[in-house]
Amino acid sequence: MRAVVVEEFGVLPRVQQVGEPVVGAGGVVVKVEATGLCRSDWHGWQGHDSDIVLPHVPGHELAGTIAAVGEGVRGWAVGDRVTTPFICACGVCEQCVEGNHQVCPHQLQPGFNYWGSFAEYVALPFAEVNLVRLPEGLDFDTAAGLGCRFATSFRAIHQVGRVEAGENVVVFGCGGVGLSAVMIAAALGARVIAVDTNPAALELARSYGAADVVHAGPEAVREILELTGGGARVTMDALGSNEIVQDALRALRPRGRHLQVGLLPAGVQLDVSRLIGQELEWLGSHGMAAHSYPEMLDLVASGNLRPQELITRTIGLDEVPGALDAMTAGTPAGVTVIRPQGITA
Ligand SMILES: NC(=O)c1ccc[n+]([C@@H]2O[C@H](COP(=O)([O-])OP(=O)(O)OC[C@H]3O[C@@H](n4cnc5c(N)ncnc54)[C@H](O)[C@@H]3O)[C@@H](O)[C@H]2O)c1
Ligand SMILES: [Zn+2]
Ligand SMILES: [Zn+2]
């Protein structure tokens, strides 16, 4: 099969012929129809993830059809249309039994712990725990985004951030995670302020429900304090940047909640005195468990959430190396979806 292969961190990957994945007991192999280009793929390619062993195939935000079913898997058959949380949880450990699959210590992530979905086929472990059946009307391109960024933002805003109608929510970084967060927070009735360096991303944020947009820069915090009348209830770092973290904490009102979704491989220094004195909450958020998908899928089916509108570009595997490379300098506005079976398939 064809796959995007990283042979050295930071060096342009190449599309190569590699062996197809073998189905494992309890798992499935999925024919990948669509897979999103997430900044976490870029982090992995840059060598920011210690789980990755070279040579490596990235890709973790995927949808497709089951091509092979492993021993012992009940309830799933060849041809079923599926997606999966990128965090494939074991389903039996203490965290999983308590429902917290997104922090399962035995989790396996395609595209990080083993070869991922920038390929014609991908293997998925613990199928009964993680597979999510796609409703009939949901196309593969849209469903791919539910494997990582849209679902991650759903959990961050709704479950971890506990965002309620009428609250001010400031989303810093309006790429795949951030635009999803804008749409989800607006659908919950929050008053959303979107922050980005890219005017085209801010334009999209407005169309997905942001009440105000702010250009990132030295004036951003002052503008947010004005727009919110003294500070936001919720901020979210949807890029992963020290500058954003500092701005976000300054933009919060006392007892505000900060959601950290963007990865910070170099770490960050927090003003802990301010966290204490203002009783600010620092909240990490990681993916979302498969059992939480029905609530999100219902909101998609009813049209309250419209992840299909986030997609602005569809590319084939051959364009992936160039697209990953371009992410070092910036991100084109909106979400890019890759079709490993070919762009006309
Ligand atoms: N916690 C999780 O479970 C999880 C899941 C998915 C992604 N992530 C991480 O979330 C982050 C975002 O991923 P993505 O795919 O949405 O990224 P992206 O590249 O699509 O979007 C980043 C956005 O940030 C904007 N930006 C750049 N500099 C900025 C600045 N100084 N201020 C404000 N905005 C700025 C860009 O213009 C772009 O719109 C990454 O770190 C990714 O690894 C985490
Ligand atoms: Zn991702
Ligand atoms: Zn587990």
Description:
It is a single chain. The protein has 345 residues and is α/β, with parallel strands linked by helices. The protein has 2 domains: 2-148 and 288-338, Medium-chain alcohol dehydrogenases, catalytic domain (Quinone Oxidoreductase, Chain A, domain 1, Alpha-Beta Complex); 153-284, Rossmann fold (3-Layer(aba) Sandwich), CATH 3.40.50.720. Helices cover 28% and strands 22% of the residues. It has 12 helices and 15 strands. Strands 3, 4, 5, 6, 7, 14 and 15 form a 7-stranded mixed β-sheet that branches. The protein has a 6-stranded parallel β-sheet with strand order 10-9-8-11-12-13, with helices on both faces. Helix 12 (320-326) links the parallel strand 14 (311-315) and strand 15 (335-338). Helix 5 packs across helix 6. The two termini are 15 Å apart. 52% of the residues are buried. The model has no long low-confidence stretch (mean pLDDT 97). It binds nicotinamide-adenine-dinucleotide and zinc ion (2 copies). One zinc ion binds at residues 38, 40, 60-61, 86, 148-149. It comes from Kribbella sancticallisti. Keywords: Metal-binding, Oxidoreductase, Zinc. Belongs to the zinc-containing alcohol dehydrogenase family. InterPro entries: ADH-like_C, ADH-like_N, ADH_Zn_CS, ER, GroES-like_sf, NAD(P)-bd_dom_sf, Zn_alcohol_dh. Its cofactor is Zn(2+).
